[in-house]
Amino acid sequence: MSKKIIGSVMTGALALSLITPAVPAAPVDAAGKVTYKVKGTTLTISGKGEMPKSMVFGKKSKTKNIKKVVIKKGVTTISKNAFKNCKKLKKVQLPSTLKKISGYAFYNTALTNVTIPNSVKYIGNYSLGMKQKVYLIAAFLTGTGNLILDEPFNGLDPESIIVLKKLLTDYRDKGNLILFSSHNLDLVANFCDSIVFIVLSTS
To answer: Regarding predicted confidence, which is higher, 203 or 72?
Structure first.
């Protein structure tokens, strides 16, 4: 199959239904004991099972200086607002056992990017744009070759749209086929190699 980016423009009452990653609820593990240790500007969280819903990492004067968080293998969840007081936090290391990242876990930190392991099945309370970025990252991480994406540009800010276009173009140039749906005719017309119009569920 030739390498192409194909956009399907949806009109009429019925849109093309494509495959997107499902986000099931995280399995609940048996209660375990999760503890922490602060050494200098590094916070290490270890143990087995879920992080407690309310976990305070010492005095606020110490917490606000944390710049790195290392979560050890065995920990399965990150609780809501877990690092909200770690305003200087810039680096996070997540384990392959992590299954759930609760809402606002990294709110109010200085993080600019986080590498999310494939084991994570649930990410809560993210905006549409953030969720979209997570789904796209998951799609690229699969390494399965051809991609089928449903409205991949929906909810993204202008800068992220430019980045995604570059990623898709590079992915195509490696010999992969990309099929995505969109309601944005201008975007499809100026970006795709081929266009398919869907009218009342027929092409």
So the answer is: 72
For residue 200 the two structure tokens come to 């009342």
Give the Cα separation of 29 and 45 in Å (integer): 17
Rounded (10°) CA dihedral 181, 183, 184, 186? 90
Hey, which residues does 196 pair with through a beta bridge?
Answer: 8
pLDDT tens by residue, 59-80: 777 788 999 999 999 999 999 8
Distance of alpha carbon 15 from alpha carbon 202, whole angstroms: 10
Distance CA 133, CA 160 (A): 9
Residues 18-27: pLDDT tens digits? 333 333 333 3
Q: What is the dihedral of CA 191, 192, 197, 198, to 10 degrees?
A: -100
Single-letter amino acid, residue 155 = G
DSSP 71-84: EPTTB-EE-TTTTT
CA triplet 197, 150, 20: central angle to 5 degrees? 140
Beta bridge partners of 92: 69
